[in-house]
């Protein structure tokens, strides 16, 4: 670069600085970052199934997990935390006790807390269906995308039909996330002994170490809501 080129640039910078000062603007000020958790929450809710778009993670252990993930996240643009390494959750309960509700509620709580969040959610049955080999589909690439995702929800683990192939897929996915210590939310209605039999000892061993176990009990919420609707309809009909 020639000397007079540098002088021209420097002179232009001085003139621009003078203009900003006359307008009452500090040229050295760091631009303020406006957080938009509401917009981020709306974007997240667009990807959440309609039934769970107002879900709230109100179980104490799940709320504590949300706080830990939010606090341990790496700072990103504007200082907003992002998902880093962390513990996973295994949410166990019989049918209708709110496992899926709590899992999506955790997503909403993280986004509301301002956490920059890239996440994916699937059921175990859909996972195997999507990855099953077929012409024109790169199942290996999709598996690696799930394995590297900062936060992954796997709903109803153990509900799909088991085979050597599904056991291998589960092992590869969980093992990658175990090694990288990536947070994973898993739900199941199986006890640990039945789950171990379904997914294999290697996967069960890793889940035992990488997850905090949360047990949900109580009646089937779906049946309770259906009963309430029936009572309401009967009352309004009289």
TrEMBL record:
<dbReference type="InterPro" id="IPR003593">
    <property type="entry name" value="AAA+_ATPase"/>
</dbReference>
<dbReference type="GO" id="GO:0006260">
    <property type="term" value="P:DNA replication"/>
</dbReference>
<dbReference type="Pfam" id="PF01695">
    <property type="entry name" value="IstB_IS21"/>
</dbReference>
<dbReference type="GO" id="GO:0005524">
    <property type="term" value="F:ATP binding"/>
</dbReference>
<dbReference type="InterPro" id="IPR027417">
    <property type="entry name" value="P-loop_NTPase"/>
</dbReference>
<dbReference type="InterPro" id="IPR002611">
    <property type="entry name" value="IstB_ATP-bd"/>
</dbReference>
<protein>
    <submittedName>
        <fullName>DNA replication protein DnaC</fullName>
    </submittedName>
</protein>
């Amino acid at each position: 670069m020639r000397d007079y080129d540098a002088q021209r640039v420097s002179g232009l910078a001085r003139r621009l600085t003078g203009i900003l000062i006359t307008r009452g603007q500090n040229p050295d000020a760091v631009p303020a970052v406006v957080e938009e958790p509401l917009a981020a929450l709306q974007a997240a809710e667009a990807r959440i199934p309609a039934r769970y778009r107002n879900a709230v993670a109100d179980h104490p252990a799940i709320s504590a997990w949300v706080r830990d993930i939010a606090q341990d996240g790496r700072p990103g643009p504007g200082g907003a935390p992002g998902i880093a390494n962390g513990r996973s959750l295994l949410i166990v309960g019989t049918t209708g006790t709110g496992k899926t509700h709590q899992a999506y509620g955790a997503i909403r709580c993280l986004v509301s807390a301002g956490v920059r969040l890239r996440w994916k959610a699937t059921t175990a049955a859909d996972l195997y269906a999507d990855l099953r080999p077929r012409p024109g589909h790169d199942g290996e690439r999709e598996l690696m995308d799930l394995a590297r995702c900062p936060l992954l929800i796997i709903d109803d683990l153990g509900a799909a039909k088991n085979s050597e192939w599904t056991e291998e897929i589960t092992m590869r996915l969980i093992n990658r996330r175990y090694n990288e210590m990536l947070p994973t939310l898993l739900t199941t209605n199986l006890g640990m002994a039945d789950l171990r039999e379904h997914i294999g000892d290697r996967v069960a061993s890793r889940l035992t170490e990488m997850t905090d176990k949360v047990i949900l009990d109580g009646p089937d919420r779906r049946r309770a809501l259906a009963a309430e609707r029936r009572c309401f309809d009967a009352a309004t009909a009289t």
